[in-house]
Amino acid sequence: MAMMLRHPDEVLPLMKMKVASAMLKKQIPPEEHWSFCYTMLQRVSRSFALVIQQLGVELRNAVCIFYLVLRALDTVEDDTSIPSDVKVPILESFYRHIYDRDWHFSCGTKDYKVLMDEFHHVSTAFLELGKSYQEAIEDITKRMGSGMAKYICKEVETVDDYDEYCHYVAGLVGLGLSKLFYASGKEELAPEFLSNSMGLFLQKTNIIRDYLEDINEIPKSRMFWPRDIWSKYADKLEDLKYEENSENAVRCLNEMVTDALRHVDDSLKYMSSLRDLAIFRFCSIPQIMAIGTLALCYNNLQVFRGVVKMRRGYVKYVYNCDLPIHHVLVSPKTVLDYLGLFPVVNLGCISYQ
After folding, report:
1. Sign (positive/negative) of CA torsion 68, 72, 77, 81?
2. Exposure of 346 by Cβ count < 10 A (0-12 exposed, 13-18 middle, 19+ buried)?
3. Catalytic residue numbers, as ranges
4. pTM for this one?
């Protein structure tokens, strides 16, 4: 209540989002496998479950299954309790399992474990998609699994390594979505480098924001910040979370944010080429959220102390698209002005034409 009194302009977006969340439950298909998929999508990513509603039914089904397949693949990669000699073959062969209604592999925790234990529902739904959708999902799953396997046995040393890792785990998502949009007949096939940048920008934002969560992962830390950057500021990446290293930690953080901003220009070019408004909204909302998140992270020691995230009212405002969203194609300053975050990040060095 106190938050609402301080920010009354966010009350309506919050109410709209609550109604939209309730509507999601009513839109769950009756078939058991599709019901599982959409219910699971809401459990593993409420934000994505809301964004995906922008799309028409056929494309929405394909994107839902694409997301769950890659989420399952990511669950295998993320589970640090799985020995590498077990994990690598599963990652490399995962693309074949999506055709097998009987396959499952128990790993992960909570809702992710349910997804893995009952993966046959995802496979059943996958097999009902059109062939062009299936081929796109299979191709990206194969390439992503191979790339993930590579980085199970390899650390992120250089910025090139960092770009390559982010390509495998997120850039390929951008490529896959572009393939699905093309298969739907609603968009032309976007250049791969633009699709890749869409994914890299989102992934790098998450890696920056999630520093503390990843570094404190049990039983083993997960470290994705490139050594070429963090070694300028600390002997060990985990040293950045200690109070005595606060000044260097913020400097390192700001260099990471600056690196992520390299991909903004390509992301805006990608979105400017989209013709379908629903697809535009689906793509642009996460990008806007990433811009706002980076603005919050920049120069913010809290990245190394706890959780950094946008206030719920900000998030609901963006999801409700009350913002004249096409203005983002001119400059992300439009979003940051509303959020009260500009000029926290100096984006003036990037040209948005």
Report:
1. positive
2. exposed
3. 165, 209, 222, 282
4. 0.86
